[in-house]
């Protein structure tokens, strides 16, 4: 009966959070087995979680980066690095999303932030609007895969899995997806005989390469100093950050300090310097230092607006989590999850068959539900089955998030579709058609990551 009430509410056009909470309340009232206040109690306890504190802070960090001119710096850095290749701005689009993904953690922030700059630049350079929209949409899915990631935080809380391990699990899959997207750009460039978009400048290229070298070598050098001289990690990090600011001032790097954000977050979590939740706060502090003190592109008026936007987004996300908590609990209490598990296990006991069916289900659900709601509904149903079949919960978490990110590109509820249609000035139908070819590299990535779990689990197992 619970499922029927939920489907009736959804079909009536109610928002998914209200449909979940309302269905649970109506079921409790009709059954008479529980007092109605249990709905409120379970909703409150569902968001009374320390890891969930990371949600507002990661949203705030992404908004600060977007509004402090950081996106323009990332775009210019990517342009210097790969803009001279054939189909250059397409490669810039993908590389820029890889970098911005290490700050925002959401696909929508990537599409709205970098997407605005990238689509405008590609149209000015003569690229078809559909191609610009397609590559922007596909690259936006990197936001929640490359750490930090808001969906990983929600999944980690629901599945009782280490958020740090999930963050580490996204590194190699993010790189694989970026490579496949850049190969797709290269195919279109070769097919349409597109040239480069900027002249190759050895000065700009080697300056960008030197920034990358600093980003790679800085944590290795820091680790060597700590090991060699037994220096306290906290002091070493602060001294190392001071040296970064000195280098940035001397050489006037384009985006050295912004692209250090994921390095600082991952390094801090793997060394135990802070938890993922504390890392979200550190990301906000870092963004404020860059915006207010270093680049001086952030004003207090802008900061207040960013905070208000963050409150609005956070309240929406947490209300969905709260509503899904009672709904998931009711599904378990009424035996729905156990019945589904029994049915699936009676159908197949092969992990690869289950993963295929789960992928199809999650792709379908992702077309209709916002990722946070989908995660909170699907985890209690699918994760117990995955565990019984020996599927690693970290691996399954990445597969689930990737499925739901692809769902963001689908009608009827794909939020990235709506954002890019508005940014590019295209109709919803043309935007949908523009994105369809880019589902190929995304689905290939999904297949590889589903059935080659070593790609997902190698980094977490090495560090954790």
Brief account:
The chain has 464 residues and is an all-alpha fold. The chain is built from 25 helices and no strands.
Describe what you observe in this structure.
Helix 6 (88-104) runs antiparallel to helix 7 (107-124) and helix 6 (88-104) runs antiparallel to helix 11 (171-192). The chain has 25 helices and no strands. The chain has one domain. With 464 residues, it is mostly helical. The two termini are 43 Å apart.
Features:
single chain; 464 residues; mainly alpha; 79% helix; 0% strand; globular
Largest sheet: none
Straight-line distance between termini: 43 Å
| Number of E-type strands | 0
- Domains (count): 1
What's the SSE pattern? HHHHHHHHHHHHHHHHHHHHHHHHH
Give me the secondary-structure category: mainly alpha
Low-confidence stretches: none
Instruction: Report the portion of residues in β strands.
Output: under 5%
Which percent range fits the helix content?
over 70%
Question: Average pLDDT, to the nearest integer?
Answer: 82
Shape by Cα distribution: globular
If helices are DSSP runs of H or I spanning 4 or more residues, what is the number of helices? 25
Q: Rg, please?
A: 22 Å
SSE blueprint:
Blueprint: H1 2-11, H2 16-31, H3 37-47, H4 54-67, H5 70-82, H6 88-104, H7 107-124, H8 129-140, H9 150-159, H10 163-169, H11 171-192, H12 202-229, H13 233-251, H14 256-259, H15 261-270, H16 276-294, H17 300-333, H18 336-347, H19 351-366, H20 371-388, H21 393-407, H22 415-424, H23 428-435, H24 439-451, H25 453-463
Helix pairs in contact: 1-2, 2-17, 3-17, 4-16, 4-17, 5-6, 5-12, 6-7, 6-8, 6-11, 7-8, 7-22, 8-22, 8-23, 9-20, 9-21, 10-25, 11-24, 12-13, 15-16, 17-20, 18-20, 19-20, 19-21, 20-21, 21-24, 22-23, 24-25
């Amino acid at each position: 009966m619970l499922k029927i009430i939920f489907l009736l509410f959804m079909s009536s056009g109610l928002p998914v959070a209200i449909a979940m909470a309302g269905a649970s309340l109506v079921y409790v009232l009709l059954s008479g087995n529980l007092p109605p206040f249990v709905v409120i109690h379970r909703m409150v306890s569902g968001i009374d979680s320390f890891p969930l504190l990371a949600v507002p802070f990661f949203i705030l960090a992404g908004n600060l980066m977007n509004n402090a001119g950081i996106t323009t710096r990332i775009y210019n850095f990517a342009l210097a690095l790969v803009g001279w290749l054939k189909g250059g701005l397409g490669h810039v689009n993908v590389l820029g999303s890889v970098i911005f993904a290490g700050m925002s953690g959401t696909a929508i922030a990537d599409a709205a932030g970098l997407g605005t700059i990238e689509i405008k630049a590609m149209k000015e350079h003569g690229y078809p609007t559909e191609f610009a929209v397609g590559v922007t949409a596909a690259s936006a899915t990197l936001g929640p895969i490359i750490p930090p990631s808001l969906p990983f935080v929600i999944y980690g809380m629901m599945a009782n899995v280490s958020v740090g391990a999930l963050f580490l699990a996204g590194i190699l899959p993010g790189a694989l997806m970026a490579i496949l997207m850049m190969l797709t750009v290269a195919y279109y460039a070769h097919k349409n005989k597109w040239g480069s978009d900027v002249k190759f400048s050895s000065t700009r290229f080697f300056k960008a390469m030197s920034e990358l070298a600093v980003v790679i070598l800085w944590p290795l050098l820091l680790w060597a100093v700590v090991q060699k001289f037994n220096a306290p990690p906290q002091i070493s990090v602060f001294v190392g950050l001071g040296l970064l600011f000195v280098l940035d001032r001397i050489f006037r790097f384009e985006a050295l300090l912004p692209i250090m954000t994921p390095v600082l977050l991952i390094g801090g979590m793997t060394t135990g310097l802070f938890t993922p939740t504390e890392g979200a706060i550190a990301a906000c502090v870092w963004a404020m230092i860059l915006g207010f003190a270093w680049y001086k592109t952030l004003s207090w008026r802008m900061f207040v607006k960013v905070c208000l936007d963050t409150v609005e987004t956070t309240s929406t996300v947490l209300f969905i989590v709260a509503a899904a908590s009672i709904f998931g609990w009711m599904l378990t209490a009424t035996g729905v999850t156990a019945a589904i598990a029994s049915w699936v296990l009676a159908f197949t006991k092969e992990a690869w068959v289950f993963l295929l069916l789960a992928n199809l289900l999650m792709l379908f659900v992702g077309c209709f539900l916002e990722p946070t709601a989908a995660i909170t509904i699907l985890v209690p149903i699918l994760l117990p089955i995955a565990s019984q079949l020996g599927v690693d919960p970290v691996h399954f978490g990445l597969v689930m998030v990737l499925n739901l990110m692809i769902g963001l590109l689908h009608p009827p509820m794909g939020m990235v579709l709506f954002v890019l249609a508005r940014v590019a000035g295209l109709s919803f139908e043309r935007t949908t058609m523009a994105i369809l070819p880019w589902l190929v590299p995304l689905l290939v990535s999904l297949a590889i990551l589903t059935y080659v779990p070593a790609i997902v689990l190698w980094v977490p197992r090495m560090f954790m």
